Amino acid sequence: MALIVAKFGGTSVASPERIKNVAKRLVRIREDGNEVVAVVSAMGKTTDELLGLTNAITKNPPARELDRLLSTGEQVSMTLLAMALEELGHRAMSFTGRQAGIKTDAFHNKAKIAEVHNERIVEALDEGIIPVVAGFQGIDENGDITTLGRGGSDTTAVAIAWGIAADVCEIYSDVDGVYTTDPRIAPRAHKLAAVSYDDMLELSSAGSGVLQSRAVEFARTWGVVIHARSAFSDAEGTYIKEDPEMEKAVITGIAHDTSEVKVTIRAVPDSAGVAARVFSALAEAMVNLDMIIQNVGDGGVTDISFTCPGADLSRATAAMDAILPQIGARGYAVDEDIAKVSLVGTGMKSSPGVTAKMFSTLGDNKINILAISTSPIRLSVVVDAAQATAAVQCLHTAFGLDSDSVFKETQLSAEEIAAKMAKGR
Amino acid sequence: MALIVAKFGGTSVASPERIKNVAKRLVRIREDGNEVVAVVSAMGKTTDELLGLTNAITKNPPARELDRLLSTGEQVSMTLLAMALEELGHRAMSFTGRQAGIKTDAFHNKAKIAEVHNERIVEALDEGIIPVVAGFQGIDENGDITTLGRGGSDTTAVAIAWGIAADVCEIYSDVDGVYTTDPRIAPRAHKLAAVSYDDMLELSSAGSGVLQSRAVEFARTWGVVIHARSAFSDAEGTYIKEDPEMEKAVITGIAHDTSEVKVTIRAVPDSAGVAARVFSALAEAMVNLDMIIQNVGDGGVTDISFTCPGADLSRATAAMDAILPQIGARGYAVDEDIAKVSLVGTGMKSSPGVTAKMFSTLGDNKINILAISTSPIRLSVVVDAAQATAAVQCLHTAFGLDSDSVFKETQLSAEEIAAKMAKGR
To answer: What's the Rg (C-alpha) of chain B?
Structure first.
């Protein structure tokens, strides 16, 4: 007998048929003797469709109106799921963010949860009702609807799990857990039974798409245990919790990210304050710099490279077009064909040989390192995109992560593969 | 300078392009020096699509969940319209039924408005904001969303017009006003400048689709002036108000309705209480009886006919299949090819010759009357569907309603014709 929050993403509720399957799953959790609260995202592509309608009307939608518009997506899926549960003979009741007591600040489109008042949900549970909560949304002090931004439904689920003191927050999606690396790239990748919050945060920010960083941060802060698992199978997934005993490897997993670009500024005058002017201009343009590489100066000028998300590139080039003539730099080159490969592991802190082993492994495999960045539990390198797969595979083997069994994509059902391919959840 | 409530139906907001046109219209009202509150229905077929999703999940949706689901339709259109207004440089703010202060009873799916608290709307107007209100929805004592049933958005508009003491409630739709009869049937029909509440109620219940009866009833009770006009032209429409001076004709208009069916029960024993048992059974089966015709008995048995909405027919036949064997009737026949033609006019009360003139006109034109019913200001006959057009035309001429100009369908734009054809707003 446990108290469970079960969150289902947009792919899992994309059609009435899938909503019925989610209802059956929830009923099974109940019939196993547990209490359960469901949290849902909007059906499939609903949010994109609503954004499409918005774009046809204005390029600058008022934030308050946009939030209210987007919040309707979850209100549709939650009511349909409540109906499907009732159809199976179980009492169910849907709750908007407001009714579920998710109070946020007033930063529309990316609100942060300020308070959680789950009295109505607890009351419903006490009456034997399955509460179905709209993810992604809350209400601010003015009584206006807010949305939580990307990954908001995961955050709602974790917040409610904390609010009702649930035993676990189950996040159901189209992937069945956290792997040592993407099994489509390294077929000997294996699923991790458990990952620490810190490792999960590094994996998420380094490109692993299983969980959104914000939800993991919230879970770490409030001590909520997450269980990331498949919506399409009963297999155990991966637990995200404090310092899991079962994983003693130095490296927990390897993430890769092909969404960044590398920009090299040519012949920047090598004098005090010049580089600072460039990076101030980029910061003002809201460019999220990841890595910065400044070469040794030669003849009074130097090349400076940096990486940033591809989505920030147009802002970055606009900023450079304005500042580079002022400082007398020669120009810049953009390389979009790069990949960032990151080793992540809390165990890295007490194992000084990791960096050397990573470099020698990549060198032995003739993989050129373009840039490096580190955190206490992460080591990232930028390589040519064409060498990314080879880099992940040789590192996965070198750090002892290979499993005995080989992952075959054909082990997945057609639906699972389709779901995996459907990006942008 | 007037205070105007302007309501736009689903056809008028069916696409981003049309929503932009509605916004331009509202801006014109403002720029003419008026204050305006917009009320909107859901976009086009949204409500039908939501009902389709529901049907794929359950045949018996819980009323509370269904209302919340359906209410999302207006929340989408209202936010998009508010965005379109802001895009035109005007401040706008959307309000759900709850925020607009529409309090209802708890009869989900067909709630009645209990109280109207429009403080937030008045505040917004005072700040120079154009409020955009979701039609069709309110909130009950428990804080749950309710919907007002068919024609609910018109009722919302009238209620808000009353709540803020507006000068007029403009109902924009795909028809440009109330005609003496359907101009597609009688091309010499003319648009009425004004109609009394009583006449409008009779016209609506006799089949004229321009306004929903509930909204007209509400307007009559609370003295709200309605202006029914076209969303696609600037022409004046028809005012619905108390005892308009400008219309002195005995007959205001002629409505027709082909949605009813006629049922004849054969050889019912002509003894006390037998007919009552039949009609009790029909009432229990929720069949809305319109007209009842009992012929003179002959040989201890008699035929009884009644008309009812075609939508009630399956319930009627089920009830008769159960009761007729018990009372010894011979069986029943159904005639679906009938039409009801109704003369409506408050002036009828003081003109005793109307019935005779109607009968002689129909007789001269060899149109057979199958059934008759009357109210103080309405006279309805049932005729063969094949003769309905001829009946409307000859009565329209006989009662002096013909205009000098002939209505041509080609006076309408392609969009207006398409909109006219789109039933089921």
So the answer is: 23
Query: Chain B residue closest to A61 (CA)?
Result: B83
Q: How far is CA A299 from CA A268, A269, A302, A323, B188, in A?
A: 11, 9, 8, 22, 93
Say which range, A317-331, B109-123, B240-254, has the weakest mean pLDDT: B240-254
Sheet architecture: strand order including A260-269: A292-294, A301-309, A260-269, A331-335
- Contact predicate B358/B374, CB 8 Å: no
pTM of the model: 0.81
Instruction: Give me A383's structure tokens.
Output: 């390589």
Residue with token string 């308009």: B244
Chain B residue with CA closest to A66: the answer is B79
Nearest residue to B407 (alpha-carbon basis) of B231, B220, B189: B189
* Cβ-based contacts under 8 A for chains A and B: 95
pLDDT at A301: 85
Is the Cα torsion angle A147, A149, A154, A160 positive or negative in sign?
negative
Sheet-wide strand order for B35-40: B92-95, B130-134, B35-40, B3-8, B168-173, B226-230, B238-241, B194-196
- Partners of B38 on chain A (C-beta within 8 Å) are none
Amino acid code (one letter) for A106: A
Report d(CA A11, CA A135) in Å as an integer.
14
CA distance A302 to chain B (A): 47
Distance CA B70, CA A13 (A): 18
- ipTM of the predicted assembly exceeds 0.85: no
Find how far residue B310's CA is from the centre of its chain. 17
DSSP reduced 3-state for B364 = helix
Is there a contact between A75 and B72 if contact means CB atoms under 8 Å apart?
Answer: yes
Average pLDDT value for residue range A266-281? 85
Is A57–B143 a contact, with Cβ atoms under 8 angstroms apart?
Answer: no
Query: Would you give the distance in Å from CA A21 to the centre of its chain?
Result: 25
Exposure string for A257-274, b = 16+ CB within 10 A, e = fewer: beebbbbbbebbebeeeb
